[in-house]
Amino acid sequence: MDGKALAARLSKKYETRDPFRLADELGFIVVSAPLVDMRGFQQRIKRQNIIYINSDLDAQQQDLVCGHEMGHHFMHRGLNRIFMNLNTQFVTQKFENEANLFSLELIYPDEDLQPFLSRSITDAAAYMGVSVQLATWRMQTVPIPEYDCYAS
Prior knowledge:
Helices cover about 50% and strands about 10% of the residues. Helix 1 packs parallel to helix 5, helix 3 (about 60-75) crosses helix 5 (about 95-105) and helix 7 crosses helix 8 (about 130-140). The protein has 8 helices and 3 strands, in the order ααβββαααααα. It has a 3-stranded mixed sheet, covered by helices on one side.
């Protein structure tokens, strides 16, 4: 599933790019608690979706984690990363990258990122609160704005 299209569709339907508001609109239970060596995770119990977020993270990182976990919910339903890591040779990093990009596409629309097309990737990474590598991936999907040369 295309994460960018999904993020755009959800943000339009629910009129928000705030992952916590979106989670609430979609009926997720979001639990904030100090998690040891973990930023967050999500699970489904008795048909209820629950997102756990490390309360020790700053607000920007909590937003990113909430969006990331919703990305897993929508794009990787039924996959159990812990099981795959412990019992298979399957590489799970692809799923983590997809969830990270979904989170960035949800929170940071193209229009907000277009000014960073003429700046350094480290500026974009700092603005989004992510690694240079992840910022590079996200910025590669931002279209160059079209300028009307006849506008006054």
